[in-house]
């Protein structure tokens, strides 16, 4: 054991939330801040090139390369569960899609936490969510009613368009999904090209936005290739009289045990330990440290510090159903990639103009719609790709095709992340339990039928689309339910495993599933917060990186306030 190092704040995880927190907390030169990252630096070429996600996902250099437990809802399949393991975390390997979700999402958060500040706000009434998003944003079109221009998160339009996607958008309009200027205005109903976190054709990760500009600060220390293995806690706690999760604390977090350069070292946090290791990493570290469901910890011979039944539970994710349609007479990535001349042209276009297919996110065009017209806001989202492949990591098909993937934005299925061993270096068991409710089966069938309806619309007729997956022979609801299980895969949006919730006047959670209060403080463990996607009580309607930044900014203000 090497000597102990002291800091004011110790942040575990240099992903999206961790980068913002390191920026905000180290802005005061009196704060000594340590940021810990299990992965390495983000200076690899393929991290910065947008299409590089093809090389960063499922690569142990940048990805934890988790896999899920065999899932009955997915025909017994185990699937890749990518999570960023590099400076910038998932924002260094994700789809770069800037998606706030919808106002209705934050209404659910306000209800779950009893905190009105989570509401969307603006013309919709009280609430801080829209205002914080605007504060964080550097929007290409400048500041307006919906956007900010002075923040760190760069938001730009895509730098390539496709005629086949324009035709898909026109077909969607013919079945009632109208084109709109953009998403992110509170109700996303319609179709639009996604806005992305890029700057001049390069990925703009949250490390680019928040960490690299301040990495020179003398009061900010960054450890890479360093894994947190245990939270350090003290039984001697002075009761915090403020209403919230620390009112009835049994312990105080005092630091973190780390594995660095082959040595075990302890670092001390004089003020707070902050977990920003993500919806898999944060609950796993808590469980390995004795914070979690008592039965689970006892099963693995981990001494129980605090029985917190909600740690690792409430896992939610968007399941995408990848349909594939062969098309004719259309330019797609498949056709461009067929020979070295067009591939070379794509590379040259990127190097000279920072445009073209190499600037593409995994999905370019999006659409939102209601599976049931009685719903208050859309519950289905399409990610439409001008390419196709059998599955991620395999070669593109050698014919022109598109992939309109549809997902249920509000799944009712719930999974969990659970300790597999007392050894903190052993990966946890991730069980998603996709399609485990009748409501999710119904949404899947409706999504597949709506996709077929769009593909059969007149605007696409000239391209003579042929359905390859799931296949036109599958007609009945039972057939499509089975196809959903066979086709479905994660869209990499796990959230909710240390959920925020409401507390009574004594500072006791109203639900045993609650782990955090609305300021992300861990129940009964003073000096410990979880600030990442784990904190979401319910999943947002769309890609989850922007909502993580909302949580991180609000929590940073609470800490500093």
TrEMBL record:
<keyword id="KW-0560">Oxidoreductase</keyword>
<comment type="similarity">
    <text>Belongs to the GMC oxidoreductase family.</text>
</comment>
<dbReference type="InterPro" id="IPR007867">
    <property type="entry name" value="GMC_OxRtase_C"/>
</dbReference>
<dbReference type="InterPro" id="IPR000172">
    <property type="entry name" value="GMC_OxRdtase_N"/>
</dbReference>
<dbReference type="Pfam" id="PF00732">
    <property type="entry name" value="GMC_oxred_N"/>
</dbReference>
<dbReference type="InterPro" id="IPR012132">
    <property type="entry name" value="GMC_OxRdtase"/>
</dbReference>
<protein>
    <submittedName>
        <fullName>Choline dehydrogenase</fullName>
        <ecNumber>1.1.99.1</ecNumber>
    </submittedName>
</protein>
<feature type="domain" description="Glucose-methanol-choline oxidoreductase N-terminal">
    <location>
        <begin position="278"/>
        <end position="292"/>
    </location>
</feature>
<dbReference type="Pfam" id="PF05199">
    <property type="entry name" value="GMC_oxred_C"/>
</dbReference>
<dbReference type="GO" id="GO:0050660">
    <property type="term" value="F:flavin adenine dinucleotide binding"/>
</dbReference>
<keyword id="KW-0274">FAD</keyword>
<feature type="binding site">
    <location>
        <position position="86"/>
    </location>
    <ligand>
        <name>FAD</name>
    </ligand>
</feature>
<dbReference type="InterPro" id="IPR036188">
    <property type="entry name" value="FAD/NAD-bd_sf"/>
</dbReference>
<dbReference type="GO" id="GO:0008812">
    <property type="term" value="F:choline dehydrogenase activity"/>
</dbReference>
<keyword id="KW-0285">Flavoprotein</keyword>
């Amino acid at each position: 054991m090497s000597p102990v190092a002291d800091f004011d704040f110790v942040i575990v995880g240099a992903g999206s939330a961790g980068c913002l927190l390191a920026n905000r907390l180290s802005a005061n030169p009196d704060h000594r801040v340590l940021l810990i990252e299990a992965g390495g630096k983000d200076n690899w070429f393929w991290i910065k090139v947008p299409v590089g996600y093809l090389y960063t996902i499922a690569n142990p250099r940048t990805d934890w390369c988790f896999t899920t437990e065999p899932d009955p809802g997915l025909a017994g399949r185990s699937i890749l569960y990518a999570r960023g393991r590099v400076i910038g975390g998932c924002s260094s390997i994700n789809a770069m899609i800037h998606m706030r979700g919808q106002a209705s999402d934050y209404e659910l958060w306000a209800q779950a936490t009893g905190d009105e500040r989570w509401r969307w706000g603006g013309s919709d009434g009280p609430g801080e969510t829209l205002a914080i998003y605007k504060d964080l944003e550097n929007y290409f079109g400048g500041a307006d009613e919906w956007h900010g221009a002075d923040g760190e998160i760069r938001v730009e339009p895509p730098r390539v368009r496709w005629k086949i996607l324009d035709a898909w958008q026109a077909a969607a309009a013919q079945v009632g999904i109208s084109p709109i200027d953009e998403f992110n205005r509170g109700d996303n109903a319609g179709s639009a090209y996604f806005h992305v976190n890029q700057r001049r054709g390069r990925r703009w990760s949250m490390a680019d936005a928040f960490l690299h500009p301040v990495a020179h600060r003398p009061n900010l220390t960054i450890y890479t290739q360093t894994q947190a293995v245990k939270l350090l806690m003290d039984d001697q706690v002075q009761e915090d009289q403020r209403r919230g999760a620390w009112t009835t604390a049994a312990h105080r977090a005092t630091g973190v045990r780390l594995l660095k350069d082959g040595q075990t070292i302890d670092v001390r946090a004089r003020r707070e330990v902050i977990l920003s290791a993500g919806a898999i990493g944060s609950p796993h570290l808590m469980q390995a440290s004795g914070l979690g469901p008592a039965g689970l910890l006892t099963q693995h011979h981990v001494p129980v510090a605090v029985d917190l039944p909600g740690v690792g539970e409430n896992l939610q994710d968007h399941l995408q159903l990848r349909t594939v349609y062969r098309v004719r007479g259309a330019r797609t990535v498949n056709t461009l990639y067929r020979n070295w001349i067009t591939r070379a042209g794509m590379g040259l276009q990127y190097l000279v103009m920072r445009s073209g297919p190499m600037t593409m996110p995994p999905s370019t065009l999006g659409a939102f719609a209601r599976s049931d017209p009685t719903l208050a806001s859309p519950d289905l989202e399409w990610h439409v790709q001008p390419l196709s492949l059998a599955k991620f990591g395999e070669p593109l098909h050698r014919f022109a095709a598109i992939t309109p993937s549809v997902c249920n934005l509000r799944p009712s299925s719930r999974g969990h992340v659970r300790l597999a061993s007392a050894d903190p270096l052993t990966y946890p068991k991730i069980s998603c339990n996709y399609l485990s409710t009748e409501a999710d089966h119904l949404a899947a069938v409706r999504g597949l039928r709506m996709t077929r309806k769009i593909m059969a619309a007149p605007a696409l007729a000239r391209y003579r689309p042929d359905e390859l997956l799931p296949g036109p022979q599958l007609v009945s609801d039972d057939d499509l339910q089975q196809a959903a299980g066979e086709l479905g895969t994660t869209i990499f949006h796990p959230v909710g495993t240390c959920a925020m919730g409401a507390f009574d006047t004594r500072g006791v959670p109203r639900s045993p599933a609650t782990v955090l209060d609305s300021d992300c403080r861990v129940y009964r463990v003073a000096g410990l917060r979880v600030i990442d996607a784990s904190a979401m009580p319910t999943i947002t309607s769309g890609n989850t990186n922007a909502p993580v930044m909302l949580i991180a900014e609000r929590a940073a203000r609470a800490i500093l306030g």
